[in-house]
Task: inverse folding
């Protein structure tokens, strides 16, 4: 543990997750879909994307890559159950504008490409492209802290999970 971690309270047991997409990090309550915005699936963060790629926020196993490519569920090596959902109601696109680069059962490393999507085409089809990232096993953590209010690049720290 470094001197700055000691001074500013970050414990070595804290878990950090990177941004799955480039864009503006915003609180989950800015997601208009209540499933996400009201934290029904768990706490997390959302990104208003400026990019067209979804990358792994940490080392993990792909628990489920949705056939439509609009979402992916990961079981992080650290134990977190992570759901990344590209846009709202985008399942109804039936895979149009989405290309998957990983499949269920794959082990992926932080920053590895999972999904590509045509953000402009998704928006032109009338869908909100905001991308929630939710920790589905929130109850396993003392705190789930979102880092919001700034532009993020793929992999920038966006969530900190405090275990104890």
Result:
């Amino acid at each position: 543990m470094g001197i700055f971690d000691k001074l500013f309270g970050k414990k070595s047991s804290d878990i950090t997750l990177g941004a799955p997409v480039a864009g503006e990090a915003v609180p989950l309550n800015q997601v208009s879909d209540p499933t996400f915005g009201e934290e029904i699936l768990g706490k997390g963060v959302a990104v208003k994307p400026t990019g067209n790629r979804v990358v792994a926020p940490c080392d993990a196993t792909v628990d489920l890559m949705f056939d439509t490519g609009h979402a992916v569920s990961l079981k992080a090596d650290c134990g977190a159950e992570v759901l990344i959902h590209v846009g709202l109601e985008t399942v109804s696109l039936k895979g149009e504008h989405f290309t998957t680069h990983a499949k269920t059962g794959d082990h992926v490393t932080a920053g590895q490409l999972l999904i590509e999507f045509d953000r402009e085409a998704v928006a032109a089809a009338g869908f909100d492209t905001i991308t929630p990232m939710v920790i589905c096993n929130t109850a396993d953590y003392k705190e789930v802290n979102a880092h919001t209010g700034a532009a993020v690049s793929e992999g920038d720290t966006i969530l900190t999970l405090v275990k104890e």
In short: Residues 1-7 have pLDDT under 50 and may be disordered. Residues 3-8 form the longest helix (6 residues). The helical segments are 3-8, 34-37, 119-124. The chain is about 10% helix and 40% strand.
